[in-house]
Specification:
Shape: globular
Order of helices and strands: EEEHEHEHHEHEH
Helix content: 25-40%
Largest sheet: 7 strands, mixed
Radius of gyration: 22 Å
Amino acid sequence: LLPDAEVEVKNNIFLRGFATNHTVPSLGYVLVERRSKLKPELVGLPQEQIVELKRKGQEITQVHEIPLVCYTGDTMWGPHFDRKDVLEAPILITECTFVEPGDRNRASVGKHLHLDDILRLLALSKAKAIVLTHLTRRTHIGAVRKQIDDAIPADQRSRVHILMDSRANRMRWDKQQAGAPAPVAPPDADGEEG
């Protein structure tokens, strides 16, 4: 894709590319849903009147875009973090290569994000979940967790997830399973629950 070009994934769902800032030409992607809604000024009018307006060629609907998921890929901070479709996606998957305070320059040189950028992103993004990927393996995952916990305000920590953090992801999975209703056994050949 070219920046801002789209591919229809399925009816009303589109994948849009957008330019990011890395050492090579790069794109991020956002999955958006398009919903057609009756224009607000027409809400409440009798159906016959709306049909008549449409018959006369008046546009009676407007399209709303709902971002679903955004993936930035490898990138440093840039104008793509000002995009409405990026900031309003409920799930934002982005890199955070470096977390150590001494690695800010390293992040800049390699055109990657640093934990400081994630703090800025938390203030701008409406995402319910910000998933961090592409962490350097030079920093132990325990140290990464500690740096994130120390840097991110307590009321924001539940929004941040580390994709590579198998221990925390397993604990979250176990907690979800403990709170989930017991699965119903599939029916046996006679149609009775097994």
